[in-house]
Amino acid sequence: MKKLKITEMHRLTVDEFKEKAKTPLIVVLDNVRSLHNVGSVFRTADAFLVEAVYLCGITSTPPQAEIHKTALGAENTVTWKYFEDTHQALEELKAQAYTVFAIEQAAGSTLLPELALNPAMKYAVVLGNEVKGVQQSVVDACDGCIEIPQFGTKHSLNVSVTGGIIIWEFFRLMHNS
């Protein structure tokens, strides 16, 4: 096997990306403090044609050098919006008929392998702060929780790793149903 060069990958231009049909998914970052995590979520959102990223609370917004370092320009392709409070983002999403899931370990959560999605619906997922997770009041305002099963000694994953797993699974389920 020969590794492909960038010029052989036939990636979309920024204009082509903007015009491309998007996965009906919005990723909400609830007080994510690390700019590297924010940038990583942007990059994954670009890879899987996520509709938008909502940045809430203390989550930094572009342009920032540290976001760009991991986003590699995806902060310029993926639509984003800032909300002072995550509840404002959820109100907007619900008014636009999105089903909203917190990605959190919670009583009654749906394990990711058991998740079933309707490709005709629109979804949003809330990723939480690196230490505190998704705020309880935000969890309460969501339509449900999704949990990534874990089998080792640690009880959590890095928020950008979680974002990568969740975004990929939503993309896979929405495009293969």
From TrEMBL:
Keywords annotated in UniProt: Methyltransferase, Transferase
Q: Which InterPro entries match?
A: Alpha/beta_knot_MTases, rRNA_MeTrfase_TrmH, SpoU_MeTrfase, tRNA_m1G_MTases_N
Q: Name a single GO cellular component.
A: cytosol
One biological process term from GO is:
RNA processing
Q: Does the keyword Glycosyltransferase apply?
A: no
Q: Which residues form the signal peptide?
A: none
Pfam family name, one: SpoU_methylase
Q: Which residues form the tRNA/rRNA methyltransferase SpoU type domain?
A: 25-167
Q: Which GO terms describe its molecular function?
A: RNA binding; RNA methyltransferase activity
- For this entry, the protein name equals tRNA/rRNA methyltransferase (SpoU)
Q: Which organism is it from?
A: Paludibacter propionicigenes (strain DSM 17365 / JCM 13257 / WB4)
